[in-house]
């Protein structure tokens, strides 16, 4: 691939094996310049292995990849100069202040003292860390450390930013803060590869989503496109009595387009429907005829969680990445 202003990252038929485990089994991907690709899948799907190849930390067994027009195998130094990487765990020196962390990164990139200092102050302000700039990083909250780590990935103003599960281990507030920062990167026109196992994160942040499972790309497209692939809407009910779930499941099977899913603990039942409000009205009519009390009812489009379950046959359960 030659350098292109249109495509920032491209991978073709990447294969990587660890022992008897094939972590990647022919992965293809493409990220147009100035967009966000969300790579979605559970731990063990191959996301981190893909990131390590694209950031030159691993060599593929076969296949090729380019970042900012540079071959990751033939031109690793040029690739490293073109990327900023934030991994699953904040890579900050806890004994240094926020300012010192960013200043050190700038110096390691070859910036002179004045430029490194100016860039550190600029990023501390941008990431809302200027008030904590002179405090040791060990006093920062999880969300603050993550913002400092993201700032470090941007010190050298990279062409491509790689965020490998950036909200892993954060509490809800820290996740929201990180989403805001990533949103700002996107607004500034950054090209971003985001790996995540959080379905709502991909839905919120990515222009295009690539679903990967057991080392293979099983679907790609916008969130809306992926949701439309499994069709229809979801009819969901919450019952007053768990004992009524079997009869409710029978009704939903008759008005729906697939087998209903029942959760006894929450007294919920849901099913895909093709006829929208007509299916809802018919279901309620039949349940009322059986004196089944419904506490809540909703009709909504499929979520990315529905998409993942439909595509893979399982939820995004935790597994260890072979790499």
Automatic annotation (TrEMBL):
Cellular-component GO terms for this entry: plasma membrane
Taxonomy, superkingdom: Bacteria
GO biological process: daunorubicin transport; doxorubicin transport; response to antibiotic
Localization: Cell membrane
InterPro entries linked to this entry: AAA+_ATPase, ABC_transporter-like_ATP-bd, ABC_transporter-like_CS, ABC_transporter_ATP-binding, DrrA, DrrA1/2-like_C, P-loop_NTPase
One Pfam family here: ABC_tran
Classification via PROSITE patterns: ABC_TRANSPORTER_1, ABC_TRANSPORTER_2
Signal peptide as annotated in the record: none
ABC transporter domain boundaries: 9-239
Bilayer topology annotation: Peripheral membrane protein
Keywords, sorted A to Z: Antibiotic resistance, ATP-binding, Cell membrane, Membrane, Nucleotide-binding, Translocase, Transport
One Gene Ontology MF term: ATP hydrolysis activity
Similarity comment text for this entry: Belongs to the ABC transporter superfamily. Drug exporter-1 (DrugE1) (TC 3.A.1.105) family.
NCBIfam families per the UniProt record, alphabetical: drrA
Name of the featured protein: ABC-2 type transport system ATP-binding protein
Gene source species: Labedaea rhizosphaerae
Phylogenetic placement of the source organism: Bacteria, Bacillati, Actinomycetota, Actinomycetes, Pseudonocardiales
């Amino acid at each position: 691939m030659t350098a292109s202003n249109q495509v920032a990252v491209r991978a073709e038929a990447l294969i990587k094996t660890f022992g008897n485990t094939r972590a990647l089994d022919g992965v293809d991907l493409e990220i147009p310049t100035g967009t966000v690709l969300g790579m979605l899948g559970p731990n063990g799907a191959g996301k981190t292995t893909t990131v390590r190849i694209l950031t030159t930390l691993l060599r593929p067994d076969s296949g090729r990849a380019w970042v900012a027009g540079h071959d990751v195998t033939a031109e690793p130094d040029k690739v490293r100069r073109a990327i900023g990487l934030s991994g699953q765990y904040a890579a900050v020196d806890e004994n240094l202040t926020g300012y010192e962390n960013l200043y050190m990164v700038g110096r390691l990139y070859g910036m002179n003292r004045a430029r490194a200092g100016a860039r550190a102050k600029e990023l501390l302000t941008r990431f809302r860390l200027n008030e904590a700039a002179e405090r040791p990083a060990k006093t920062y909250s999880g969300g603050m450390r993550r913002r400092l780590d993201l700032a470090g990935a941007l010190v050298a103003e990279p062409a491509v930013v790689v965020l490998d599960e950036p909200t892993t281990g954060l509490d809800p507030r820290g996740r929201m803060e990180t989403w805001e920062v990533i949103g700002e990167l996107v607004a500034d026109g950054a090209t971003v590869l985001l790996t995540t196992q959080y379905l709502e994160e991909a839905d919120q942040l990515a222009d295009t989503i690539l679903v990967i499972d057991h080392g293979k790309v099983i679907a790609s497209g916008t969130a809306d496109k992926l949701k439309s692939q499994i069709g229809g809407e979801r009819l969901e009910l919450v019952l007053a009595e768990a004992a009524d779930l079997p009869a409710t499941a029978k009704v939903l099977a008759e008005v729906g387009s697939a087998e209903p899913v029942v959760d006894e603990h929450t007294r919920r039942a849901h099913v895909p429907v093709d006829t929208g409000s007509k299916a809802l009205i018919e279901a309620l009519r039949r349940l009322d005829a059986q004196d089944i009390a419904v506490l809540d009812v909703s009709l909504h489009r499929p979520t990315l969680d529905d998409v993942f379950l439909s595509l893979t046959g399982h939820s995004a359960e935790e597994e260890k990445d072979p790499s």
